[in-house]
Description:
33% of the residues lie in helices and 21% in strands. The protein has helices spanning 24-31, 48-56, 72-78, 85-88, 100-105, 120-126, 148-151, 171-178, 193-202, 204-207, 223-231, 245-255; strands at 5-9, 34-38, 43-46, 64-67, 91-94, 109-112, 133-140, 155-166, 187-190, 217-220, 238-239.
Amino acid sequence: xxxxxxxxxxxxxxxxxxxxxxxxxxxxxxxxxxxxxxxxxxxxxxxxxxxxxxxxxxxxxxxxxxxxxxxxxxxxxxxxxxxxxxxxxxxxxxxxxxxxxxxxxxxxxxxxxxxxxxxxxxxxxxxxxxxxxxxxxxxxxxxxxxxxxxxxxxxxxxxxxxxxxxxxxxxxxxxxxxxxxxxxxxxxxxxxxxxxxxxxxxxxxxxxxxxxxxxxxxxxxxxxxxxxxxxxxxxxxxxxxxxxxxxxxxxxxxxxxxxxxx
Length: 262
């Protein structure tokens, strides 16, 4: 792969059984002529008590499901847990299109997904005002959404933390081995705020090179991840136009046009 632009893929570590075909982002990067380096900075660990609660909660207490992360359903599959039948009978509200296929595979109905930006801001901007719609938001311990943001849209939101994003064992050594390949030309892809936090916690000296003009170029998947980079004083990041693999590729092709690649 000598001469190809190296790209650090930090997407969450998800068991292969839950993602047939492996990491589609890395496969897409290779097909596009980049040199992907896989160093997951997030490992999602389910909370057993929360999983048990998931199976007991009464469907009388909510009207639908708000899904903010496309990782949840593949992860449930990976640990052998099924989505409660009652959930499948309720309408689902999605932050982005990436989760639609998994939701519809359950036989559930997707009631709403924003057509524009796949973000909380995009969701709240586009969804019509509801009539006291009660939604459960299953997610990670770090993706608690502020219920007050939804009240103006007539939505009562209840957060339900099912899993915790942790920094994988061996991440520091993997980062130290990969980082020299990213300079002077390379990029680091961030698919979540957790990945940013874990990089700065696990390898702060390497992370600080993202500030330098000759350091790896950070690419964020959405506005919340961009804000997290800004909080660490990383202002030279580039946000993808869409929150998916195609968005990452579009941004990388803009940063590294084929005509200028080695």
